[in-house]
Design goal:
mainly alpha, 3 helices
Length: about 80
């Protein structure tokens, strides 16, 4: 269910990094990279090769992590 992974990447990066005060976009990007790499490892273990669809989902997860951090930067930090 790659769509669930993508939604969770955005929601978690937005929710978690809203609580931090600085570097939210960088942290969101790093979370997206980690989520994408975790999904990549699963795909490679199950299928044995990376398809175009898997690569697009990897890029999408990185972009959604970055977007979650960017959106979290717009709101004041929660304490």
């Amino acid at each position: 269910m790659p769509w669930l992974e993508c939604i969770l990447t955005f929601v978690l990066s937005f929710g978690v990094f809203r609580r931090t005060k600085e570097l939210r976009v960088i942290h969101g990007l790093l979370l997206g990279i980690l989520a994408g790499l975790a999904g990549l490892v699963v795909v490679l273990c199950v299928r044995g090769h990376l398809s175009l669809r898997g690569f697009v989902i990897l890029i999408l997860m990185v972009a959604l992590g970055w977007l979650g951090g960017l959106c979290a930067q717009k709101w004041p930090a929660k304490t």
